[in-house]
Design goal:
With 178 residues, this protein is α/β, with parallel strands linked by helices. The chain is built from 6 helices and 6 strands, in the order E-H-E-H-E-H-E-H-E-H-E-H. Strands 2-1-3-4-5-6 form a 6-stranded parallel beta sheet, sandwiched between helices. The radius of gyration is 14 Å and the shape is globular. The chain starts with a strand and ends with a helix.
């Protein structure tokens, strides 16, 4: 079984977020640890992810939410480490106010095909990322797009609990990776 690295977005995915709940339930999952969830710096996040991947016994699978989706596009552009794939949830529009105000070093993520398999899970009513932006991102990154309907930002505020539908989507993605 592959290692699984959780990559929360801005704020670090709190106690009721599906990422936190999944991590508690599965000993193969662990969270990468940048210096700050609230004041993210791209170079620090890249170093933190590289450290976690170096700790993995086999190439890991990444589970990213929100800002971490755009982060993976940045990381992949110069990645020295290999991963099996990335499960990307709720990609935000990098020109949005919150994004630019809280994470300016993450602006202008590379818009090119990711060098590993990926799935992009999107909600049709995400306040931080219009569905059309998610569709375009999936196309540019070479990701499979999964429309989960109206789930807001697919976070704790969406009232998903441990998000069984998402766990099933991730399970299917992981099975395809072998």
């Amino acid at each position: 079984m592959s290692d699984i690295i959780i990559l929360p977005g801005l704020g670090g995915s709190g106690e009721d977020h599906w990422q936190t709940l999944w991590e508690r339930q599965d000993p193969r999952m662990r969270r990468f640890q940048p210096a700050s969830w609230d004041r993210p710096e791209l170079s620090d996040w890249i170093a933190a992810l590289d450290r976690e991947i170096d700790r993995a016994k086999t190439p890991p699978i990444l589970i990213a939410h929100s800002l971490a989706c755009q982060f993976i596009a940045h990381w992949a552009a110069s990645a020295k480490n290999r991963i099996l794939g990335a499960f990307l949830v709720a990609v935000p529009d990098p020109t949005g106010e919150v994004y630019l105000g809280e994470a300016p070093s993450f602006a202008n993520p590379p818009r090119r095909r990711l060098p590993f398999p990926s799935v992009l899970v999107a909600s049709i009513d995400d306040p931080y990322g219009p569905f059309d932006y998610a569709k375009e991102s999936a196309s540019v990154w070479g990701s499979e797009l999964v429309d989960v309907g109206p789930l807001g930002h697919i976070n704790a505020g969406s009232g998903l609990g441990d998000w069984p539908e998402g766990r099933a989507l991730f399970g299917r993605f992981r099975a395809r990776l072998g």
